[in-house]
Amino acid sequence: MCGLMGFVLTTPDGRIGDGPVDRVAEVAAGMPLCRHRGPDEPGTWHDDRVVFGFNRLATIDIEHSQQPLRWGPPDDPERYAMVFNGEIYNYLELRAGLTEEFGAEFRTEGDGESIVAGYHYYGPSWVSRLRGMFAFLIWDTREQVLFGARDPFGIKPLYTAELADGIGFASEAKSLRALLPHPDPAVSSADGTAPAVVDKTALQHYLVLQYVPEPESMDAQLRRVESGTSFTVAADGTMTTQRYFHPIFAPRPVTSEASKRALYQQIADVMDDSVGKHMRADVTVGSFLSGGIDSTAIAALAKRYNPNLLTFTTGFERQGYSEVDVAAESAAAIGVEHIVRLVSEEDLTSTLPLIVWYLDDPVADPALVPLYFVAKEARKHVKVVLSGEGADELFGGYNIYREPSSLRRITGLPGGLRKGLAAVGRVLPQGFRGKDLLRRGSLDLEQRYYGNARIFREEQLSGLLRSYSPDVSFADVTDQVYAQSTGVDPVSRMQHVDLFTWLRGDILVKADKMTMANALELRVPFLDKEVFEVARHIPESEKVTPKTTKLALRKAMELVVPPHVLNRRKLGFPVPIRHFLAGNSYEWARGIITSAQTEQYIDPAAVLALLDAHKAGTADYSRQIWTVLVFMLWHEIFVTGSVKPEVPHPIYPVRL
């Protein structure tokens, strides 16, 4: 795990320390802002052209493997410097192979050396052999080349910024802003760095999707390295990026009972292997347990490798918004100890500004709040947890994946008839049953599906978003993704879109940021490239049916997961914001709307109208209101600095 920073000088004849800006000091200033990611050991290193900073959360080879890491072959033992955030789960196998083939020598027992040594012997292609979650930077002191990469699915973050004299990188945006020029010292973000600059395109995408899609950031000065890509900064300062991971679904028919059984066994085997490798650590590993099949399967498999496994769950102090009892039942059935953290309405409202500070970019998923608190509780007991993220995207778990089947009677009609039904739908009164079915059935998949979260429809934004542009559309994000999946079934195409949008924009951002906020390492065994290789071949009939989702996964887990969990509907971590915003939290929300200095972007009167209509019970506008509130808090923290969350200093024991 951990938090990294890096700066590479791109001016041809410059040297670190010669310019008007002290980049070494700026990296030193930025690192404390991501101290929560690695409170065990700080470290810095620099030469004439590169500065690296690192905050370590030690989980493997605790006594050694300090970073920035130096490694090289026997004739040049410190040729490379590296900073690396993440875990390489097949590092033991990689190290053994490098030793056998090249006689590679290693000075630690950690996983980091497997990255840099493999890069030395194989070059950039080595990244495709890494099985894990990662963002790293490697500086070749001999060739004066910087190489870096992000993991295939985007589990670990990496921001970047082009500066006048070089390129900056960091695990967190707030750290990277320490490298940005400060135009007006009288104005700064809440953490004292240069204020963010709102990217109006990113804001419009956010209000539709509830997250900022990669490679955008809400701060126009920054961008994000995309998942599954590597990059090189050459000696002349030019940066090139290439995609090394192409997650294409290619379903294969399953035509007999024997082939079905073989598929289920293949899934069971690859999941057991993935969980086993994700359990590699020199510290205690626990598991989140929400009560559904995904987290229960992970916990049950993890128990094979740690009989004393601790599991953790959360829920709200409101009936219908908690899986605590269900999770406890699952924990008892698989025989693991279970720890619960309940969340109150006061927890939500008082902690949201701090949560937004940790986020860096706004994400309007209310499940962030319970995830933050269950991570906080888990960190009292363990240093690493497993979780079930990615199962829905890989195995077909979302109910929306049933839509192609339910719409087939409409989408199979000739175009003229579909348009006629759409016209009928438009004249039906709002709220009339079937109106939205007719509207969506008249649209092609590329027009109607752009991910799991749909907050504001684009036609709803013109009265709310002052910077609204009809030239900006979700299609700007999804068209290029859809273009990669032509010729496969619609469910596979929806999964493919979710891998590049919803998963890496929402699910993995909140998972990383909320656990790292508490110096807790989250590992996600479903998001393993070997698991994906099996999952991508599952046919539609083994993913969604009229009665269930993730059929093949459920069948594969029959011997692992308790029967009462196998067919339970998905809940996740539901949050009662609908009730809160219409009740006790109404004034809290109104206070944010009226005080935020966001008038140039958002019409406050339009938001207040939504809030009042929601309180009156006219309609449920809670998700739209929540989305705007999160942006307003982000703006006041990172742009104006008027909201200054009290950030706890992370002090944890080195060993757990």
Q: What does the secondary structure layout of this molecule look like, with pairings?
A:
Layout: E1 3-9, H1 23-30, E2 41-46, E3 50-56, E4 69-71, E5 80-88, H2 91-102, H3 112-122, E6 132-140, E7 145-150, E8 159-162, E9 166-170, H4 173-176, H5 200-209, E10 223-224, E11 229-233, E12 239-243, H6 257-278, E13 285-288, H7 293-305, E14 310-316, H8 324-334, E15 337-343, H9 345-359, H10 368-378, E16 384-386, H11 391-395, H12 403-406, H13 408-411, H14 415-427, H15 435-441, H16 445-448, H17 475-482, H18 490-500, H19 502-516, E17 521-523, H20 529-535, H21 551-556, H22 563-566, H23 577-582, H24 586-595, H25 604-616, H26 622-638
Parallel strand pairs: 13-14, 13-16, 14-15, 16-17
Antiparallel strand pairs: 1-3, 1-9, 2-3, 4-5, 5-6, 6-7, 7-11, 8-9, 8-10, 11-12
Q: How would you characterize this protein structure?
A:
- The chain is α+β, with helices and mostly antiparallel strands and 656 residues long.
- It is built from 26 helices and 17 strands.
- Strands 2-3-1-9-8-10 form a six-stranded antiparallel β-sheet. A six-stranded antiparallel β-sheet has the order 4-5-6-7-11-12. It has a five-stranded parallel β-sheet with strand order 15-14-13-16-17, with helices on both faces.
